[in-house]
Task: structure prediction
Amino acid sequence: MGQAGLNMSRRIRRTPFTDRVEAHGVRGFSVVNHMLLPKAFEADVEDDYLHLRQHVQIWDVSVQRQVQIIGPDAARLVQIMTPRDLRGAETGQCLYVPLIDQNAGMLNDPVLLKLAEDRFWLSIADSDILLWARGLAIGMGLDVVVDEPDVSPLAIQGPKAQALMTQLFGDGIAALGHFRFGIFDVLGTRQLIARSGYSKQGGYEIYLQDSALGSALWDLIWDAGTAYNIRPGCPNLIERIEGGLMSYGNEFTRENNPLECGFGPLCHLGDAIDYIGKTALRELAATGPQRMLRGIKFGDGPSPPCGEPFPVTTGPASSSGGQSSAGRDEIVGQITSGIYSPRLGCNVGMSMIEKTHWEFGTRLFVHTPDGKTHNGTVEPFPF
Amino acid sequence: MGQAGLNMSRRIRRTPFTDRVEAHGVRGFSVVNHMLLPKAFEADVEDDYLHLRQHVQIWDVSVQRQVQIIGPDAARLVQIMTPRDLRGAETGQCLYVPLIDQNAGMLNDPVLLKLAEDRFWLSIADSDILLWARGLAIGMGLDVVVDEPDVSPLAIQGPKAQALMTQLFGDGIAALGHFRFGIFDVLGTRQLIARSGYSKQGGYEIYLQDSALGSALWDLIWDAGTAYNIRPGCPNLIERIEGGLMSYGNEFTRENNPLECGFGPLCHLGDAIDYIGKTALRELAATGPQRMLRGIKFGDGPSPPCGEPFPVTTGPASSSGGQSSAGRDEIVGQITSGIYSPRLGCNVGMSMIEKTHWEFGTRLFVHTPDGKTHNGTVEPFPF
Result:
C-alpha cells in the first residue's frame, strides 16, 4: 500500500513549521525521530522534481534533530562514535560521519557540525543517537553533556536558493563554501546557516534555534521567495535516488557495515585514532565487503511505490512466486528505494548487491509488488 | 488534523502480521520503534471499545520490540537502567520497569521479562533502548550481548481471550498468573506466552520468535477465534485512557521523572541497589514532585482527536488566545491523550498537573483545537 492514515499524537512530534506546512495543504507525512516529516504537497513527485531542479523550495526538515555534545570530553566522544578521522575537522565545518557499533554495524549517518573545539552537533537520521551517545558518556565516565537542543532545520533547496538566501541574509551566504556554516542575522536573532541539504540541486539549511520563531522564519522566506517561484517541498524521491543520496533504515541498517555502503574512503583503519567497532571493521576490511550498495536501472515505465523492498534476482523467476519453470532464481539484492525517473526514461533504485553480481553492467531482474518482473542492470550512482 | 497519509518505506518496518492486517482492511497506522502499529480498522473507536469489553480481539503489537540482554553481566546492566529493585525478580515474571537517565528523566517504560538469571527482554515503548543499553554496556565494559531478536508480540485481548487461548494452547494458559509467562507448543514450535497486554480487559501476548510464522499464527488464532466473535483490533484509546494506561512520548517524556508519573512506589531510593539517576531521583524525592500525572474529565460531548496537546488552564481564557477580559489564565497542564468515553458521558484525558492544582476535584478548563473551552475536573485514574 502506498499510503494509509497516520494517527497523530504528541508522541509523534509536530515541528515549529507544521502549522505552515498544513496551511500549504500537505498531503502526507512520514515519521522520523519521533517527529513529522512532510512527504507530499499538491504537486505530484515528478512535478516537484522538475520544480526543484529549476527554482527553489522550502522544506521542513526539523526531523534532522541535533544531538549536542558539549564539554571537555566532547571531541573524544564524537571521535569514538565514528571511523572517520576527525583530527583535521575545523570549526564551521560540516562532515558526513558514519556512526557504527561494536560490530561495525551502521547506527546512523549524521552530518557533524563542529561549533567549537568542545561543542558539536550531530544532525541525525532516524535513530535515537542521543541515547547511544549518553550511554557511552555515562558508561565511560566522560565529562560531557549530551542533549537535544531546541534546533529545527529548515532547508532552502534548488538553483535559486543562493539568490533568495543572499537577498535575505547578505553576501556572506554566497561566500559560504559547500558543507560550511556561518552565523547570520535572522529575525533579530543570530542563527546558524549551512550550505548543505538533502538534494544535489544546491541550497542551505537554517538551523533555527528557537521554535517560537518557526512561523515567522517560514513567512520571511516564503514572502521573499515568491519572486523566485518558491514552493513548499520535501526531499524528493526521484532527485534523491538520481543523486545517490542514501537513507538510513532504507538502503542500510545495523545489519550493514560502512564498507558495504561505500563509506570505505571515510574510514580510518590505522592506529592514529580509536573508535568503537575498529577491530570489527579491520576484520571486515581484510576480507573485503561481500556486498555493495549499487544503483539499478530497471523497467521502462513507472512501477508501484517502494513501500517494501523489491527482490532482485539472477533470473526472471521471482523468489517468492517460485512458479517459473526456471525454478527459484537466486536473490542477490533488494531495491530499498526506487522510482521512475522521467529524465532517464526508466526506474532507478538503490540496492545492496552481492559480490557475485555487483559489477556495473550486470543484468539482473527486479520483481515489483504488482507481480511484474523487470529487466535491470547494475549501475553506478549518482545516475 | 486527525489523519494524513503515511508514506511507506523499508525504514518504517512491516511486521510479520502486516499482510493479515492489510487483508482485514486496516485504515490507519502509527509508527512506533520504526515499525507499523495498526490504529484503525472498519469499526469506529467506540464500536471497537464495546467489542473489546465483551469479546476478544487480535492485535499486532510487534512494535513492542524486544531488547535482549544476555550474559554474565546481564542482571547488572538491567538493574543499572531502572530504579525498580529487581533483586526479587523471578524467572517467568514480567515486571513494569521505568527506565531513567542520569537526570532521572524517563527514557522508556518497558515490561521486563526475566527469561533466565542471565537473560532478559525489555519489551519497549517508543525509543531506541537498544542503543542506550549498548552504549552503557560498551562504556562500562560489561560482559553482555545486547541485540534485537526476531520476536514479534501478538496480543489476544478481551474477556474471551482466556477461553480462546486455552482451547488452542492448553490448560497451562488458564494457570498463568497475571504478568507471568510460560513456554507453550505453538505450530510445532516452542513459544513464549505471557498473561499481559495493553488493555484492562485481560488477555495474553504471544512473543512470536520466528517472523516466518506470522501469517500461520494469525490464521490459527483467527480461525479458532470466529467462535468467540474475534475481531482485528489495536490498543483502544477509550479503553486505554479509562484504564489509566500511559503512553511514553504522550503522557511523559525525558522531561519527566518517574515520581511525576506516579511510579514512586516502584522506585528504590535506599542503598541496596545502584542505578543511573539515583542521585538525581533522591534529590527530586526530597523536594517532592512539582506536578503529577492526573486524570481529567472534561466536556459533555465528543472533542476533536488529541493530535496535539490540549492546554489546561485555571480560568476559561485560553493561553494562546489571550483575548479574554480575564487576561491570560495560568496553564497548569496539557492533556496529552484524551477522548470521549461513552460509558462516562464525558471526555477523559490524562495530563501532568502542577502541584497547585493537582488535588482531586479541582475545577479546571480544557481548550480543544476547535476553539471550544470545556469545564474539567481533576480525577484519579483508572476512571
In short: DSSP finds nine helices and 22 strands in chain B. The domain at 18-64+151-242 of chain B is CATH 3.30.1360.120 (Gyrase A; domain 2). Confidence is low (pLDDT under 50) at residues 321-327 of chain B. Residues 8 and 14 of chain B are 9 Å apart (CA to CA).
